[in-house]
Amino acid sequence: MLIKLFGAAVQGIDATIITIEVNSSRGCMFYLVGLPDSAVKESHQRILSALQVNGYKMPTSNIVINMAPADIRKEGSAYDLPLAIGLLGASEVISSEKFDRYMLMGELSLDGSIQPIKGALPIAIKAREAGFEGLIVPKQNVREAAVVNKLNVYGVSTLKEVAEFFNGERELKPTIVNTREEFYARQSHFDCDFADVKGQENVKRALEVAAAGGHNLIMVGAPGSGKSMMAKRLPSILPPLSLSESLETTKIHSVAGKLGSDCSLITQRPFRSPHHTISQVAMVGGGSFPQPGEISLAHNGVLFLDELPEFSRNVLEVLRQPLEDRCITISRAKGSINYPAGLMLVASMNPCPCGYYNHPTKACVCSAGQVQKYLNRISGPLLDRIDIQIEIVPVPFDKMSDQRRGEPSATIRERVIRARQIQEQRYANMPGIHCNAQMNSQLLATYARPDEKGLLLLKNAMERLNLSARAYDRILKVARTIADLEGSEQLLPAHLAEAISYRNLDRENWAG
To answer: Do 106 and 117 form a contact (C-beta atoms < 8 A)?
Structure first.
């Protein structure tokens, strides 16, 4: 008897339908074809044990299983459930009448219990697109998949439940998630708030400008000056995710297996802070079975690199292209996969090896050459891609002991949202551009054109600081954001002056 079931293979952040054909005929052999990897081939032993424990017999006939299309490599253990149900259907132990109406995926334990899988959300989206009536997934993944509307999503715990469902002996209830209600309910809850930060008004202003325009930022300062503390509070002033951004971000985390069993949607912008020992593959993604890296997991959010010079130079250099293109293409012999990488890069570093160069009270023991060598660990092309470079001075005691709370994140966030709304209206007819940080040269000439006084100011700054053409563009982008925060259509010299002040590392005498 020949029967067909349907599963899915996840490639990048999208899914492809996999048709599982099971043919039972006279004989005693078992064949699994269709380019399965080792994990899929090992499913035979897991399925055999699960069937026996749950009171089913492994078919003794000749079994041929084909996983089509045969040119796509089938990876992982998530095909256990459809393969097991296919075997039972081909041997007529359960009815195959409803097989064409449902997609199912799940990993089997030896006792028949079903373990969670990766990529449940893109699989659910594909099931709805293909017109399936329902999707059967492990109970741990059901809330993640149930955010897709117009699709019945069933969470199951054991192989027996699924077999009884297809036999009409058990009724499964679809899980319903009110996507919009959950999305808006969790958007404004943050553990960290800028009200807790004492002093550092200039740095808070720089972070506000960075958030308003989506600009990359680096903070340079002595140990204990508050670099990490303020970076962790940055998501609390970023504009909230839109529903489409939330779905895209959730898909990436779903593929990477980073969603918890109680999570349905990621409602807050991601904040990723990898250790400086991270490898290139972990940063950009890849591996034998390509997975999203940290730059993709930070998509629509913040990638924070603490102690930037301690990162491997090779790791830092691979960031250059994704920061420009906002996506990363991972090419391997088996094919290429695209992952989105639209992120804000926020970095922090000490000014020198001992950490106290330019410190107001502590003496630096490093020579000028050591300071310059330390700074040179970060290449010029990477620094050029960082719009805002701000120096942090430790907070004096009188401000640190002040009991008054600072400006809360909610107030700053309102100004950021207003500035972003101006940018959204400005770039409404320009696909792929949502904020000032994404402006190209043509848009700069249109929306960030300084007047004569501004041009003279820029000329003097370019000559004195010996800035590159890319740094010139960065200054104009940041100045445009400062103007948007003030609600100004014109780019004034004051806006340019503030933007130039955010190029601290470009000063020729900065490292002595």
So the answer is: yes
Residue 383 has φ and ψ, to the nearest 5°, of -60, -35
**Has residue 82 got a pLDDT over 80?**
yes
Query: Tell me, what amino acid is at 23?
Result: N
Tokens standing for residue 134? 């329902």
CA angle 155, 78, 272 (to 5 degrees): 85
Residue 129 pLDDT: 95
Q: Fold identical between 2-166 and 186-430?
A: no
* Low-confidence winner among 153-157, 197-201, 327-331, 366-370 (lowest mean pLDDT): 197-201
> What is the pTM assigned to this prediction?
0.88
Its CATH architecture, for the domain 186-430, is: 3-Layer(aba) Sandwich (3.40)
CA 29/CA 63 separation, integer angstroms? 6
3-state DSSP call for residue 360? coil
As a whole number of Å, the end-to-end CA separation of the chain is 81
In the predicted model, is pLDDT for residue 5 greater than 60? yes
As a CATH number, domain 2-166 is 3.30.230.10
Q: How far is CA 86 from CA 70, 73, 79, 160, 203, in A?
A: 18, 19, 11, 13, 61
d(CA 120, CA 289): 17
Q: Is the pLDDT of residue 512 over 60?
A: no
Q: What is the mean pLDDT of residues 170-191?
A: 80
Q: What is the spatial distance between Cα 216 and Cα 49, in angstroms, rounded to a whole number? A: 53
Closest of 288, 264, 287, 259 to residue 117, by C-alpha: 259
Contact between 204 and 408 under an 8 Å Cβ cutoff? The reply is no
Ramachandran quadrant class, 103 (left: phi over 0; alpha: psi -120 to 50; beta: rest): beta
Percent of the chain with pLDDT over 90: 56
* Neighbour tally for 186: CB within 10 Å: 13
Q: What is the pLDDT of residues 416-453, one digit of tens each?
A: 999 999 999 999 888 888 899 988 888 988 899 898 99
Cα 93 versus chain centre, distance: 44
Nearest CA to 54 out of 90, 28, 87 is that of 87
Domain boundaries, the chain: 2-166, 186-430
Tally of residues, the chain: 512
> What does 187-222 look like in DSSP terms, one character per residue?
TT--S--GGG--S-HHHHHHHHHHHHHT--EEEEE-
